[in-house]
Amino acid sequence: MTEFVKLDQLLPSKQRAVAPLATLSDDLGSRLADEITSGRLLPGTRLDEQSIADRFNTSRTPVREALRQLEANGLVERRPYKGAVVATISLQMLAEMFTAMGEMEASCARLAALSATSAERADLRKLHAAMGALMRGDDMAGYARANIDFHEMIYAMAHNEIVADFTRALRRRLTPFRRAQFRMEGRLKRSNTEHTRIVRAIEKGEGDMAARLMREHVDRVRSAYLEFSGVAELEGGVTFL
Q1: Which of 46, 179, 186, 219 is the most exposed place for a label (fewest CB within 10 A)?
Q2: pLDDT per residue over 169-224, tens digit each?
Q3: CA-to-CA distance for 10 and 131, rounded, in angstroms?
Q4: Is the dihedral of CA 9, 167, 217, 97 positive or negative?
């Protein structure tokens, strides 16, 4: 069964004694992903390990691991004689990934509404309540972390590991783009409101409604990312305005 963080870890920092820390490579990967998805690092930009290590005052080892993570997400690619560079991602590919993500997440939500146990529904309510506290405290980082657990919980509640595994794989590819949404003003509150509707549908066992609401939720994530980044098509790839 999927392990989730404890609810006390989702409370605002002033209400918990110790916060879980990401590894250095995870932190570097997140920072570089934000720079890529926001357009500060443009497609084709060479990512020199030593330059990045000097910039972030670290060794090359965590930088190398961070670049591997970004390559797995499709944000970085390896080119002959150039090494790691920022990947060119077509808008069509990005749109297709979000469409696929919406369908897979919708399937998980529908199955969760039909298959979840009473205990799982109660856990989902508790997690959503904890996320409400993070939203009201404007804890963007905490909410983003809890958001992963929220969706993971729904995957587990679907009780179909094949569907869940496909959904997780897509989510990993889109994680940097999904995370960018929370930099939009007011997005935390809107996300939490959307989650409330999804939770209610799952609690009521309304599979079709839960699927529709989840599909709309993912589509709004896509829209928020595009609005945040100001993407436009240029020479078959993504550029940023």
Answers
A1: 186
A2: 888 878 777 766 666 667 889 999 999 999 999 999 999 999 999 999 999 888 87
A3: 7
A4: positive
Task: Using a pLDDT cut of 70, give the percent of the chain over it.
Answer: 81
Helix axes 187-203, 91-115, angle to 10 degrees: 40
Domain ranges across the chain: 24-86, 91-231
pLDDT band at 239 (very low <50, low <70, confident <90, very high): very low
pLDDT > 90 fraction of the chain, expressed in percent and rounded: 50
Q: Is the model's pLDDT at 12 over the cut of 70?
A: no
Contact 225, 177 (CB under 8 A): yes
> Hey, CA dihedral for 102, 105, 108, 112, is it positive or negative?
negative
Write down the pLDDT at residue 144. Answer: 85
CATH number for 24-86 (one of 3.30.499.10, 1.10.10.10, 3.30.360.10, 1.20.120.450): it is 1.10.10.10
Contact (CB, 8 A) for 130 and 16: no
Per CATH, domain 91-231 is 1.20.120.530: yes
CA atoms within 13 A on the CB side of 12: 9
* Nearest-angstrom CA–CA distance, 170 and 69: 14
pTM, full prediction: 0.69
